[in-house]
Design brief:
- The chain is mostly beta strands and 162 residues long.
- It has one domain.
- The protein has a six-stranded parallel β-sheet.
- The N and C termini lie far apart (72 Å).
Length: 162
């Protein structure tokens, strides 16, 4: 029989926490790893979990199988299934499904995306359901890349002659 390890922390600063079930409230932490992690009003540098629930939190790197962000910010979010509700993430990558509700995402890549009133810079997906407002589609992204590459190539030629 497995012994279940549970940890609950509140209003503290931590370097590293590891455990099977972790619940952290109103704290800051450098790194947290575990099976099921629940964070409320927590600022973290790195989160690595099988299942992560973040409410009103901020993280730089968030990795896991099932990720749920609610009113949170994550710089890089990567997982199998990602769910975002009233959140912001510049880069979101998912293997299976991404569910986004009234959130803002910079670059969103997933096999299936379900969305409601979401804004994104660039979306890469096999199947999209719902309302997503994107700034770049594949044609405009290709044109933007060509113009940027041509400009950088031209500037590098000018700088090499000096």
């Amino acid at each position: 029989m497995m012994h279940r390890e549970e940890r609950e922390h509140e209003k503290s600063d931590f370097e590293f926490i590891e455990g099977e079930f972790i619940n952290i409230k109103q704290s800051s932490i450098r790194a947290v790893e575990g099976g099921h992690i629940e964070l409320q009003q927590v600022c973290a540098l790195s989160i690595d979990a099988e299942k992560a629930d973040v409410t009103q939190g901020a993280s730089v790197i968030l990795r896991g199988n099932d990720i749920n962000l609610n009113q949170s910010i994550s710089a890089i979010t990567a997982g199998d299934n990602v769910s975002m509700n009233f959140s912001f993430s510049p880069i979101t990558i998912s293997r299976e499904q991404t569910t986004v509700n009234r959130s803002a995402v910079g670059i969103m890549a997933s096999r299936d995306i379900k969305s409601e009133n979401t804004s994104s810079l660039l979306v890469l997906a096999h199947k999209i359901e719902g309302n997503v407002t994107t700034l770049l589609d594949w044609r405009s992204a290709l044109a933007f890349g060509a113009v940027l590459g041509g400009t950088l190539g031209f500037l590098s030629l000018l700088l090499k002659r000096r």
